[in-house]
């Protein structure tokens, strides 16, 4: 073969590889700077909807910033430093809420929209920055693979520090919802109930949905390459982010929440997980709510469902 053609072919292969790696890093690697507290990758929410959500969260943060919050940290099993933010109720309480945030967010994102509610109920509140997000170290996100294990370690921290007699509620949104779903098969006895808000069934199925949403017709080969890169760089198989088995074998009652207008993590994913769960369960579908915005679309209704579910199972 002509040397010139070989050189052109090698250059083309190199360019494709560079583009593929760059795309992978955009999705999976730690960002140097958080884009937004609610800057979910690929979200289909309108600009106006995102502006409204940002304003909603900002109002919550104004209240949160007046609270006495302790900055804490643990070391993950991989050696990463993970940051947590613990707010103890002024009235001594044995109930702790552990809150898991979504993709490319941090403790000032999804957890901020619920902290005041839980504190005013008389509970303690722990939110964290998941691996490779916020102030936590680490190079790659796990899309629930790393986060679920880390979160179980955070629960062990609470039990070790505050006693075997505490009660724990776990609550997560989006990737945090999937993290909660991944945890429920393995949680300690202190966990009494779980809330999974707009969780996906697996990261690969979520990536498939996102790719098709931006016009990619043939996703199978693309996802196969993406997963192969993930095994090399992050060291795990994205097939292991599937939460179905954990949800099916949940040790605790589960409340599933999903917006009916969620196209980023399709509503059918949350409904499927609700159907699979064999423990006590409830499903709260919020009309017209887009991704991770059920709390904004129906805050009163959401709080009432939480009140009822907590009263029933705590």
- Work out the number of β strands: 8
Describe the largest sheet: 8 strands, mixed
SSE sequence, one letter per element = HHEEEHEHEHEHHHEHEHH
- Total helix count? 11
Compute the CA-based radius of gyration: 20 Å
Residue-averaged pLDDT: 90
Quote the beta fraction.
15-25%
Q: What is the CA-CA span between the terminal residues?
A: 72 Å
Side by side, the strands of the main sheet go: 1-2-4-3-5-6-7-8
Shape: globular
Proportion in helices: 40-55%
Specify the structural class. Answer: alpha/beta
**Model regions low in confidence, pLDDT < 50 over at least 5 residues:** 3-16, 33-44
What does this structure look like?
With 314 residues, the chain is of the alpha/beta class. The chain contains 11 helices and 8 strands. Helix 5 links the parallel strand 5 (167-173) and strand 6 (191-197). The termini are far apart.
């Amino acid at each position: 073969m002509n040397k010139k053609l070989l050189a052109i072919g090698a250059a083309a292969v190199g360019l494709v590889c560079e583009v593929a790696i760059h795309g992978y890093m955009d999705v999976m690697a730690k960002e140097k700077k958080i884009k937004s507290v609610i800057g979910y990758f690929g979200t289909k929410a309108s600009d106006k909807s995102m502006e409204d959500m940002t304003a909603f969260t900002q109002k919550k943060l104004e209240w949160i910033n007046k609270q006495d919050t302790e900055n804490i940290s643990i070391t993950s099993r991989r050696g990463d430093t993970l940051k947590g933010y613990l707010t103890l109720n002024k009235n001594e309480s044995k109930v702790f809420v552990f809150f898991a945030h979504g993709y490319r967010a941090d403790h000032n994102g999804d957890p901020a929209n619920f902290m005041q509610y839980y504190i005013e109920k008389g509970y303690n509140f722990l939110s964290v920055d998941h691996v490779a997000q916020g102030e936590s170290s680490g190079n790659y996100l796990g899309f629930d693979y790393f986060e679920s294990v880390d979160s179980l370690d955070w629960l062990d921290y609470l039990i070790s520090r505050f006693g075997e007699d505490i009660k724990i509620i776990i609550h997560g949104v989006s990737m945090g919802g999937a993290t909660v779903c991944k945890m429920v098969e393995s949680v300690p006895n202190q966990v009494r109930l779980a809330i999974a808000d707009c969780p996906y069934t697996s990261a690969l199925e979520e990536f498939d949905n996102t790719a098709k949403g931006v016009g990619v017709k043939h996703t199978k080969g693309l996802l196969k390459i993406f997963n192969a890169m993930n095994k090399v760089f992050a060291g795990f198989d994205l097939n292991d982010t599937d939460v179905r088995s954990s949800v099916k074998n949940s040790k605790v009652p589960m409340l599933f929440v999903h917006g009916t207008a969620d196209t980023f993590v399709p509503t059918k994913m949350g409904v499927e997980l609700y159907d699979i769960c064999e423990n006590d369960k409830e499903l709260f579908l919020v009309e017209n709510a887009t991704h991770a915005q059920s709390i904004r679309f129906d805050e009163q209704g959401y709080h009432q469902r939480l009140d009822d579910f907590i009263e029933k199972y705590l």
